[in-house]
Amino acid sequence: MKKLQYNSPVILTFFLVSLAALVLNLFTGGWSNRMFFSVYRAPLTSPFTWVRMFTHVLGHAGVEHFLGNMLLLLVVGPPLEEKYGSKVLLTGILFTALVSGLLQTLLFPGTALLGASGIVFMLIMLSSLAGMKSGQIPLTLILVAVLYLGQEIHSMLFIKDNVANFMHLVGGGCGTAFGFAVARQKKV
Q1: Could you tell me which of 76, 90, 82 has the C-alpha nearest to residue 13?
Q2: Residue ranges in the chain modelled with pLDDT below 70
Q3: Long-range CB contacts (< 8 A, 24+ apart) of 133-137?
Q4: According to DSSP H, which parts of the chain are helical?
Q5: Phi, psi at residue 173, to the nearest 5°?
Q6: What is the spatial distance between Cα 119 and Cα 73, in angstroms, rounded to a whole number?
Q7: What pLDDT is stored for residue 144 in this prediction?
């Protein structure tokens, strides 16, 4: 009999903690998302403000939001974790969470942000850099960036919904910057 393999510890743990946050939010009628899994402008003296800078990526507004993010995370994340390693991928996730959390509180003080979309777009852009050779820019990066940017800009201009398209762009930017930084470190 074959055993189950916990093949991607960072991605699978992210999934499981996000699932627990979703269930907790459903049982608390939204309280846990407001308290722990959303980022919004709050006093910097509150420890929860700093915790939420990272934990907002674990919260989701509902099952559909959760599934949309987690399906992509589970498809794109494990190969990246295998290529770059768990520590590097976790660093990328924490970096993207912090950048998006800080930008949300600075630029959009009247709204809250939650969900793993920025992380997913970080992973998508990072995956488009996976085959990068020294001194070359992968064509996949350019194509993904153009298509992704076009879709997000179109959504920002013409679709009125509660999707944080700007934070998707931030996640993609973080993935690109992080991918180049990791590639540069591997050369050194």
Answers
A1: 90
A2: 134, 160-163, 187-188
A3: 134/183, 134/187
A4: 9-27, 31-35, 47-55, 63-84, 86-107, 117-128, 139-158, 165-187
A5: -65, -40
A6: 8
A7: 83
Q: How many residues does the chain have?
A: 188
Give the torsion sign (CA, 152, 157, 158, 160).
positive
pLDDT of residue 13: 98
* Token pair listed for 36: 């722990």
Helix (H, G, I), strand (E, B) or coil at 95: helix
Q: What angle in degrees, to the nearest 10, is found between the helix axes of 86-107 and 117-128? A: 130
Q: How far is it between the farthest Cα atoms of the chain?
A: 54
Neighbouring residues of 55: CB distance < 8 A, sequence distance ≥ 6: 21, 36, 37, 97
Residue 163 has what pLDDT? 59
pLDDT at position 49, please?
Answer: 95
Spell out the domains of the chain, with CATH numbers in brackets.
9-187 (1.20.1540.10)
